[in-house]
Amino acid sequence: MPVGLGVDIVEIERMRKILARTPSFARKVFTEDEQAYCNSKANPAQHYAARFAAKEAVGKALGVGIMADGLRVQDVEVVRDFRGHPAVKLHGRAVEIARERGVVDIPLSLSFTQEVAVANAVAITRDSQAEREKRRDVKAELAGQFKELRGMLDDLSVSTAKAATEATASSPAPKPPALDEEAELPPVDEADKDAQ
Fold this sequence. Notes:
It catalyses: apo-[ACP] + CoA = holo-[ACP] + adenosine 3',5'-bisphosphate + H(+). This protein is of the alpha+beta class. The chain is 53% helix and 18% strand.
């Protein structure tokens, strides 16, 4: 089962004001890579807000929250995966908490509008992954059996059609009656004569 689900929302304008009023905030809360990423964007506050929401969401998914149980804000880092999507990288106490709870993955989703940034994180455990793999194996097995049965039905259908075709081809076709000069024609009805 998942350990938990974490969701957090941050007002972008509020983040913009905090960054302007307290320049050290970014250094205390975000890793150097996070700062470099956010500062490279046209609207840095939007990206800082999304990453702050992500840190909070991950803490909630782990069941502790940021700045609780020894979890520091920089222990949760938002990075980019090989596809360029946001991903979670844990450090320090966050790694320990994840291990204690059997967390093996934390999928992360970030989104923002002009006003707010939102993050959603799910802590996935070994047990939930094993259960998912088990369901996947059952589905694959059923799909394989269905494919095999479908093939058998197709073969049976082809065999039946072939046998019917062969049976028709091997039996002689009935010959139409031959008309010769001596064949007797049915009598013509008087009404038919008038029609001619």
